[in-house]
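Dear Dr. L.,

I hope this message finds you well. Following up on our conversation about the binding site, I have prepared a predicted three-dimensional model of the protein together with S-adenosylmethionine. For your records, I am including the exact sequence and ligand specification that went into the calculation, followed by the structure tokens. Please feel free to forward this to your student if that is useful.
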Amino acid sequence: MKRAPAHQPAAYADPLAGVLRPGQSVELLKALHILTRDGRLNQDSRRKLKQVYHLCNFIEPLIDEVLGRQDTLLLADHGAGKSYLGFILYDLYLKTRPGAQIVGIETRDELVEKSRELAARLGFGRMRFLDATVAESTRTDVLPDRFDIVTALHACNTATDDAIRFAFAKEARHIVLVPCCQAEVAAVLRRHKNASFGKTPLSEIWRHPIHTREFGSQLTNVLRCLQLEAHGYQVSVTELVGWEHSMKNELIVASHTGQPRGDARVRLAAILESLNLDELKPRFLD
Ligand SMILES: C[S@@+](CC[C@H](N)C(=O)[O-])C[C@H]1O[C@@H](n2cnc3c(N)ncnc32)[C@H](O)[C@@H]1O
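The resulting structure of the complex is given below.
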């Protein structure tokens, strides 16, 4: 390897030192525009890579947990977009583990096609991509009946809820969600605002339009957590520190224990009732 002149600082000598992990594909990072074409890392991409690693740090122990119990692992990534999460997980943790497969699910066919091409170019033979909505992927018989890990990173609006339903249907052991914009609960709060004023002083919480949006968004994730707990998952909620979408940086990790939190379902129903959100009961309680 060519050495840097002695007067240059070490970081200058190898700008990727301490950034790339052993065996990591430089070609992948270039294809994902994390590295420039000539293999450099700028400030922006250094930050982006750190964020991706940060998220991967939460997922790695889940992968290890599954592969510690069995030889195979199936991971579904919903609303995959360019599939950079799936590609990085595969590159970092799965390419040397022959029983592991990733399926990226995405509605935009041009992104699915590009991901297929990239996986073929990199020789990532156990990555598949499905051009489908999350809901369609739950029903299709081209996918297996069971998945071990389900991820949904910034899957738009109710696609996160569809991913939760997919995980329930596929008896996923772990679910990792970074929810995106979520307008549905806010829309229901808004629609019933007048009736809610007469029903409960709690309606003050969402009286002003900006509060309707923000409270609706927070409430959505609270309801999702209770729903997961009611289905026997242990839930942890943290922040993806430094995540570029600062308003969408909540990370929900749920692991199946088979023991529903005793009062989760009752509390979920009570919250929907007190906030005049009965119409959402089928969505969260079924
Ligand atoms: C904000 S992007 C996130 C992409 C990627 N997960 C990431 O974090 O970079 C959301 C992606 O979800 C896809 N999407 C939206 N609704 C979907 C649905 N119901 N089923 C599958 N994909 C969906 C969009 O086409 C888009 O590519």
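In brief: The pocket of S-adenosylmethionine is lined by residues 78-81, 84-85, 105-108, 111, 133-134, 153-156, 159, 162, 180 (CB under 6 Å).

With kind regards,
A. P.
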